[in-house]
Amino acid sequence: MSRLLVVPVLLLLIALASGCGEEGAAGGATVTVYVSAPLRGAGAEAGRRLCDEAREQARQGRGGEELRLRVVCLDASGPDGGWTLAQVGANARRATEDSTAVAYVGEPDPEARRQSRPIVDAAGIAQLGGISGREAVAAVRAAIAEGNESEPRQAVFAAEG
After folding, report:
1. Virtual CA dihedral for 77, 79, 81, 83, nearest 10 degrees?
2. Structural domains in the chain?
3. H-helix segments, 61-132
4. Could you tell me which residues come within 8 angstroms of residue 125 by beta carbon, excluding any fewer than 6 positions away?
5. In this structure, what DSSP letter does residue 70 have?
6. What's the pTM?
7. What pLDDT digit, counting tens, does each position of 145-156 carry?
8. pLDDT tens digit string along 50-87?
9. Separation CA 136–CA 134 (nearest Å)
């Protein structure tokens, strides 16, 4: 009889343990905004500006924020300096692998954004594109503040995705 009890108890413990970490962001947690843009070649100036604006806006912050916002800039350019499908895809996949990612600021080129959107959408990460880095980070902050701060990825996706 005791063997019959062991299996259900073990299954219950496994089920409870697998739910750990699903509670969302705690106060003082860090959330990440990924920015993908060419940082070399002809589009480098626009790409650097997008990243610099996002970083500057993230540093300014809002007083009393529960969540810390981090910006990660990824180079979308290939060997010749222009964006490549392979690099755009790799950047989008990198964002999806980060549990702290709440938004992906897509490439300045609309065609490149069309390539990365399905990847980040599938992970429930909002893609923001066609706006400045400053506007993108401000939109992320507003979405988190207006939504559920304990689930920042969902809040941003609901508002911007």
Report:
1. -30
2. 26-160 (3.40.50.2300)
3. 85-96, 110-122
4. 95, 96, 101, 102, 103, 104, 153, 156, 157, 161
5. E
6. 0.80
7. 998 778 999 999
8. 999 999 999 986 544 678 899 999 999 998 888 999 99
9. 5
